[in-house]
């Protein structure tokens, strides 16, 4: 058999092995993905997509530093394809994961040839827990997975251009970079990676390099204009515009250290081994402190060995460090660091998901000769060239352990059950039922971040609104209002707080104020008063708590009316306001809550 035939057969074996690895990874990760459900930003994006037209302003809105017209376009379509369509979301996730994995295999093949060694960085990417938290969050999938696909495809096209000079490869590189930019601002660093890898490892002519960089620079300039215009003009959910700015050096340094030592390095070595749950459906890294320092020592040893033996390995590690600093650290410093602080965000692996692709490429550059590279080694290879195998085995075992530990939680079951139960409840109550429109539990969508997008009426109104009457506040005579309990079931509304018992049959109330002493003093705040009445005719009641006054209608005959009133004090004063006298019975004042003694709809939560 000829040498060329042996190489061909060896290449076929490497390709086949790589494809099997990709397929096994997809089956493995699908077991996690299929258990996830929508959460937090996912609801916001889909609700906003339902409320908006497919316009330039809708697509180019910058969400706390995130410009993702591609993601918003998908959200717009998702809202019209069943809303919270799990099958579509999961299929999209696995398809993008497959594309990203195959794209990396192609890049490694082009860079290093059909060497079995390329299966090591490929295996790292397929196994690393660095990408796992983002796979369980659909909004993160919309950003990170398209970038994980675009980055190796753009680098592959640029590499082909460097080798043969065909302009169509430059066009393809620009197209893939633009594809990444449509989903994630971090794709702006793809041309930077092209430049550094070209300067460090490839040898094109200057004219050839110039012809590539004119369109690359033009693409980045146009994108920068669109991004920064949107960044400073986009009104956020809290009705404010964003004014990004770097925090002080101490905060910046702490976040860089925390995200590197507690996020990047442990997850690159198969960690974090332990997780810090954020509700039932998400978790952040929580590596044990001893393993953090062991990991730092291991990485230092790996870098030192590569620099000693592999030519330009130092540059490969600088590429990773620069990408980590510019693409992972700086955007968070400009956006969210002051909101939650480095002590929390430093454990967020979601920021590192796309960096896993860069780590895989850097591992190859630091240890594997490029295709056709002359004199790749600084020193002759020794018998210790297999010393990496035990480390690779340990990283593999740690990765499997870490991913299994992440999956050992309900994931989307809790939120899925809440949404399914709430939808079932709305389908069972009569049309026109008054439902108090409260915020969903924070584990579903946190009102502190998403404001009105976390209301039941909005979250459950996808893809179609329900035929009930939503009320943000109870005001006036309302017949049998209902509200959601913590499990997503509808129950009658009860007022939790203070109660003034009925005096006799009722207390007459006319134009002169009648004061009712409360069992205790209410501090300053906004309260809901429930007033029972027995009236001969419809009238209007003026309700006063301290300096707070409001007017509500009170109907004829026996009933109850609600008044939303701000104030404080130990007395509630009532009078009629330009209508017939009223006769008032029991009074309750406090906050509306689900009546746990009332009948629940449905009786049992949906599974």
Explain this structure to me?
The chain has 21 helices and 15 strands. It is 51% helix and 17% strand. A hairpin with a 5-residue loop joins β8 and β9. By secondary structure, the protein is α+β, with helices and mostly antiparallel strands. The longest helix has 31 residues.
Secondary structure elements and pairings:
Elements: H1 3-33, H2 41-51, H3 56-59, E1 62-63, E2 66-67, H4 69-79, H5 86-112, H6 119-127, H7 132-135, H8 138-164, H9 167-183, H10 190-201, H11 206-233, H12 249-268, E3 275-277, E4 283-285, H13 289-309, H14 313-335, H15 337-340, H16 342-345, H17 355-367, H18 388-407, H19 413-428, E5 434-436, H20 447-450, H21 456-459, E6 469-471, E7 476-477, E8 482-484, E9 490-500, E10 507-509, E11 514-535, E12 539-545, E13 548-554, E14 557-576, E15 582-594
Parallel strand pairs: 5-6
Antiparallel strand pairs: 1-2, 3-4, 7-14, 8-9, 9-15, 10-15, 11-14, 11-15, 12-13, 12-14
Q: How far is the N terminus from the C terminus?
A: 62 Å
Largest sheet: 9 strands, antiparallel
Please tell me the overall pLDDT: 91
Uncertain ranges: 1-7
Share of helical residues: 40-55%
Beta-strand portion reads 15-25%
Question: Using DSSP, what is the number of strands?
Answer: 15
Q: Give the radius of gyration.
A: 31 Å
- Helix-strand makeup class: alpha+beta
Shape: elongated
Supply the number of helical segments: 21
Any key phrases for this structure?
alpha+beta, 9-stranded antiparallel β-sheet
Summarize the structure.
The protein is 51% helix and 17% strand.
